[in-house]
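Handoff note, outgoing to incoming analyst
You'll be picking up this chain. Sequence as last confirmed:
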Amino acid sequence: MRLALTPEIARLSEMLARNVHENWAKLRIAEGWHYGPHRDDREKEHPNLVPYEQLSESEKQYDRQTALESIKALLATGYTIEPPAGTRISAEGTSPASGSELASILQLLRDCSQPDLALLQGFWRAHDPEVWSVNPEPYRLLGERILKLGEPLLAYDVVAEGMKSYPQDVRLRQLLALALARSGAAGPANNVLEHLYQDGYRDEETLGLLARTHKDLAREEQDVSKASQHLRRAYEFYRQGYETSGGYWSGINAATLALLLGERTRAAALARPVREQCRLRLRGLAEADGERYWLMSTLGEAALLLGDWPEAENWYCQAVELGRGDWGSLQSTRHNARLLMRCIAPRDDGGRIEQLFRFPNVVVFAGHMIDRDDRIVPRFPPRLEPMVKDAVQHCLGKLNAGFGYASGACGSDILFHEVMLKMKGESYVILPYEKGRFIKDCVEIVPGSDWAERLDNVIAQATDTQEVSKSQSGSDVSYEFANLMLHGLAGVRAEQLETKLVPVAVWDGKSRTGEGGTAGTVERWRRLGLRVEVIDLEEILRRERPSFSVQAAASATTASNQAEAASSEFAPEIRALLFADAEGFSKLTDEEVPLFVQHFLGLAGRLAAESAHRPVTKNTWGDGLYLVFSNVRDAGQFALDLRDVVRNTDWSKHGLPTLNLRIGLHAGPVYHCCDPVTEHTTYIGANVSRAARIEPITPTGQVYASQAFAALATAEGVKEFRCDYVGQTSMAKKYGTFPTYVVLRGKTTVEKRV
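Most recent structure output, in case you need it:
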């Protein structure tokens, strides 16, 4: 039988799904099972022994489907379900009466004032296109709510389906453009909005979005004169939006762009009425109204545009106090203030703005573990813990640290996190491999200590915790990759907030081989030109025992740190991975396939052979490409070059329809081997599977990347391209939901101005 997803059934199925999972988990735990990253029947480990909220979206959907089938079975056998309040659920209410069902759908969506992403995703999967197609409103409401949660790709799917039935619906066209713009597709978004504009729609929403896409295109444009043309168009649309609607948001954007374009008189003329408008509106708002922050920041911008620094300082101070802790909003305000100051007072060097917006710094940390009992020459004996913790606290206070990234080993790492949390900062725990095994290897190394419990407390309070590898054991490569991820994630955060990235290390000053340890990490930071704040363990040890003399002794290091296990053909290496797929291949005729091989794959092959960023291995299947690169810099540049050459080719000259690419990028440890079947060199491993899931969800003509790829690009100091965050995205084949980035060319001179 077919079951209409009414508000009552949606709520009931979610409640039952949670109950299904909790009862399953209780039974497993009673049988001696516990959490593990992979299912292991012998060890009784299961990855789903976590709270319902922490399940992957695909696992939640299984539980929801189980609940829905149970409800169907009850109704089909004649039972009714009587909720405490609301409409009785019975078999009669499950027929496809599209009118009443659509009304229930709309009511459910309108009730989602603070929507939960998992619920909206489940709602979309269960929707009936036939029922929804009679009214564009459910597509509008669901698209809006998903966009508010920062999921532009899912919103695009929703709105695109709605436009099949309502191609001229203005709101759907606006939402489609917004979803495209937020997913990094500024060109297609601009095209949608230009058509709306040409059709006569000149409302503030359309004009504001159109202006925004021209600003985005200016950032992407490598030609400075073309970028300036986009800025001019953005200004014109913001000004037109302000003249049409009188909205202060359009007005202040128009004034700011006028100043950036060198038109000071026009900028001031726009800023004056905006200032008066915001003052009046502010007087009528309640103290708790969230719009107050944006009104105050707009008043600060208007005062700067009018050259009134004392007034600007007053409004900005109020905005900073009101927005305390909302770093995203504060960063947006500070960014605009910096742009204005560069034009108004270029010699100021941003000093006055920085005094108003004192952002805490981002710290990436590395440090030695506490000494094992069998260590011969002391490095970090347990008795030094209070002194090291005091030194870490002093250092972080001096640096104004507000965001901290570190691993979770006993000793320095855990001390660092404890200090960050005590300072009310955001702490991010990055583990090199599976948590349970990591605790055995790197936390529970001193009998009778409480380090494992302290790590659990840190993780419970941390802003985020990640296991960067699915490996269940440590190696030089896994530690090196984790340190690169630490640096990269911290660097990405610092770039987002436009604040300083400061490396800090608890280190004894000794150089050692290998990239995975503290010494190797410090040396890599210094090679990148970073100034490292070092808390000298050897100096602390001397202060604690003045008569102590550190002597070099080969026997001081345990055998496990002297050498790796015997080499294997399947040794892991950190590599960048590219998967690409040709859009339009499935529609080719048999006669066109040979032309595709000759011209499309031939083009990709020539680029792979001649590029300065050549892959180390390459493979194809049908219209798919799988390329492996030695580093993320080469992978990113090659991906953008490949995208552009395919996009700019006139395929009709080769007897082919229009063709385009979707390209996905990832990076991580993989295994290098010779394929026994093809007898060709290849790379395999869990990260290859992860990389393959990115391309299918990438918009046509775009290059998308994983968080790992973006982090390594930052850690390696890549400037040739940038990775802009587009949201948490559900990967293909129910692989889970992960942070996703769009890869774009490096910054132009104009972009640095906007």
